[in-house]
Design brief:
Layout: H1 11-44, H2 51-76, H3 84-98, H4 103-126, H5 132-150, H6 163-170, E1 172-173, E2 176-177, H7 178-196, H8 198-208, H9 210-215, H10 220-246, H11 257-267, H12 279-299, H13 304-330
Antiparallel strand pairs: 1-2
Length: 331
């Protein structure tokens, strides 16, 4: 007769399972909550699950998603970019002016401007060893000042003059507009870069520990500079797509956009300290914020202050949960 010996589960095994569960919820919890919220919204509100409403949520979130994608890479290195809202507005203004020379210039001009802002900030942070918060706060003020200087203190609102460029903002494949398609393509590229390339692993390593990354032979300063350039380019691109959709370069857009982008990244599971996170979580975070706002608007009778309290409270809960999960993984 064969005797079967049962090996008891050790504390290490239990700890490993707990760590894996905590990490899985941290990285994919936003997707689960988003799916649940969509189901609840569809059951509770007659107008929520309509094609028009869901399409509107998808389109409105596409601009923030592009900005948040760049912010994800910045935060993964342990940095922050407070300038993206102003660069978003700058991109829209430059795109509107550039549209007079065709759609190519309408995209190239803001992208070049965003790259210049990002490169300047990245150089100061990576090579000048200055604090990202201070540098990008200066970038926020500088880019916004440049917007007002170009538009004569906001008195001259540039109009989009290229019909082809304007159609990029409104046309698409069926109900899916080009901004949404471009956003999805960018997220696929971002996922591939982060998960399948040495550059992506360098970003994660830099955020995990700069000293260890340096010992691994990584050029940490170059990694940092590259993510700020990418953030500037993506913010300006999102601004140009917004200008194409609205047919004008509005100077006041993008105020507070940096906070929304940071919120989406954090809700998506990326740690503010860097080194851990993913772009799919960021995308879920963007649309989780969008769905919450959409449901609040449909409920009605809620002032903007109440909406802000609800959004802020939700973000606070997410940050607290993330902190607890992070500690669980370190135990």
């Amino acid at each position: 007769m064969t005797t079967v010996t049962t090996v008891p589960t050790t504390n290490v095994d239990r700890l490993t399972r707990r760590e894996r569960l905590a990490e899985g919820f941290q990285q994919h919890g936003a997707i689960v909550v988003l799916a649940a919220l969509i189901v609840v919204g569809g059951l509770a509100l007659d107008t929520f699950a309509t094609a028009d409403n869901l399409t509107n949520v998808l389109v409105q979130g596409s601009f923030l998603a592009i900005v948040a994608l760049g912010m994800t890479f910045v935060i993964l290195t342990g940095g922050i970019d407070l300038s993206v809202g102003s660069v978003f507005a700058l991109g829209g203004v430059l795109a509107a002016y550039g549209s007079a020379y065709g759609p190519v210039v309408a995209f190239a001009l803001p992208i070049a401007g965003g790259a210049l802002v990002g490169a300047t900030q990245g150089a100061l942070i990576a090579y000048g060893r200055m604090a990202p918060f201070i540098v990008t706060l200066a970038g926020l003020l500088g880019a916004r000042g440049l917007v007002f200087a170009i538009t004569d203190e906001g008195n001259k609102t540039p109009k989009v003059e290229s019909d082809l460029f304007a159609r990029i903002g409104s046309d698409g494949l069926g109900r899916i507009t080009w901004p949404v398609i471009i956003m999805l393509v960018l997220f696929v590229v971002g996922w591939l870069v982060l998960q399948r390339t040495r550059g992506g692993q360098a970003v994660l390593a830099t955020g995990g520990s700069e000293d260890v990354a340096t010992l691994m032979g990584l050029h940490v300063a170059r990694v940092k500079m590259s993510v700020y350039i990418a953030s500037g380019v993506l913010a300006a691109l999102a601004g140009s797509l917004n200008a194409a959709r609205s047919s004008t370069g509005v100077t006041t857009v993008g105020v507070g956009l940096e906070l929304e982008a940071i919120s989406a990244v954090v809700i998506g599971g990326t740690l503010l300290l860097g080194g851990r996170g993913n772009v799919t979580g960021t995308l879920a975070g963007v649309y989780l914020l969008g769905v919450i706002q959409n449901i609040i608007n449909q409920v009605g009778n809620l002032t903007s202050s109440v909406q802000s309290v609800v959004s802020g409270g939700f973000l606070l809960v997410v940050v607290v949960i993330q902190t607890i999960l992070s500690r669980t993984q370190r135990l």
